[in-house]
Amino acid sequence: MNFQIQCDELKKVLNTVIGTIPKNTAMPVLGNFLFEVNPVNVAEAELTITGSDLEIIIHSKVEIETEDKFGFLVAANPFANLIAQIESKQRLLFILKENKKLEVRSVRGKYLLSTLDAKEYPISPSFVEGEEIKINGKLLKEALQFVDYSVEVKETIRPAMTGVFFERGESDRMNLVSTDSRKLARITTEKLLENDIAFIIPKKASDILINILPTEEVTLNYSNSYLQIAFNNTTFVTRLISQKFPNYRSVLPTENQIVVMLDRKELLETVKNLKKLTTSAKVLFSFEKGGVIISVINNDADRQEVKLDCEGNEEIEISFNSGYLIDILSSIKESKVKFEMSTPTKAVLINSNDYTLNLVMPVRME
Hints:
Layout: E1 2-6, H1 7-17, E2 32-41, E3 44-52, E4 56-65, E5 70-75, H2 76-85, E6 91-96, E7 101-105, E8 110-116, E9 131-136, H3 137-147, E10 163-168, E11 173-179, E12 183-192, E13 198-202, H4 203-212, E14 217-222, E15 226-231, E16 234-239, E17 258-263, H5 264-275, E18 282-288, E19 291-297, E20 303-309, E21 316-321, H6 322-331, E22 336-341, E23 348-351, E24 356-360
Antiparallel strand pairs: 1-6, 2-3, 2-5, 3-4, 4-16, 5-8, 6-7, 7-8, 9-14, 10-11, 10-13, 11-12, 12-24, 14-15, 15-16, 17-22, 18-19, 18-21, 19-20, 22-23, 23-24
């Protein structure tokens, strides 16, 4: 049993699927790619490569030359490393031998790999089609990138915060929201929705999608337990987080009367540079008329400070976690950023336009 495939096409499929392969798992079989070869007509077939950690499954297809029908498992990371070393323009020949060894032939090399029976791979959960949404892949990718920094990455008693929340927001547009209770990010997309939606995808699913989403249209299909995204010859399926997302609107401040504008790039570089001068995560902002003094305390209790210009006449001292600020300012693309505040202890809004929202809780000043 054998087939031929262009190396560059195989690399694209592997790059799409490999993100699902778990680093540590109680089921060693999940450390394999599933290869399934199914003939379409004489001498032509579809090769489907699958990766899964049981929570996320990716199937990606590519056309190959063969008349055979067969399947096998091959260790994912060693196989991907091997293919990465072969020149992309080459045509590869795969031969599955009777002793279950897989021989891979390139122009200059011949490699032998062990395989397992495809029947040992766990059966993917059946997906029952539900509501369908079509959206531009680039738009969805950018939305996921914007909210990614605010997803809770530590173990928590509130699993709903370990993912990205999809909802129907104001003006019937689709919102993506994330929060870890100390910071919050929301982006309103251009996608109009006819029906209400409310589901949460895990952070790992979001991270994989950021890497594999195409620029063209994709189709989202979701049920009570799963979200399926189809594009090109790829099907991405993730289990949804089965908890209710926190009522984040209840923490959005409505009376932040202090408003100042700063240059985003200048502010970001200043906070990054000051962060290097101290082991403390705290950075102090002392706003005054037309300016702000940004300072940190280093290990010798010496104060390091930089003064920046800003638009605003209010006076207030407020402290932030420098890492949170860097995350927020890095997610914003506009040249100006607006701080909306009320007191040194209440939530602050940091924004640059009408369709994104960043919220951060100040750090208590000593």
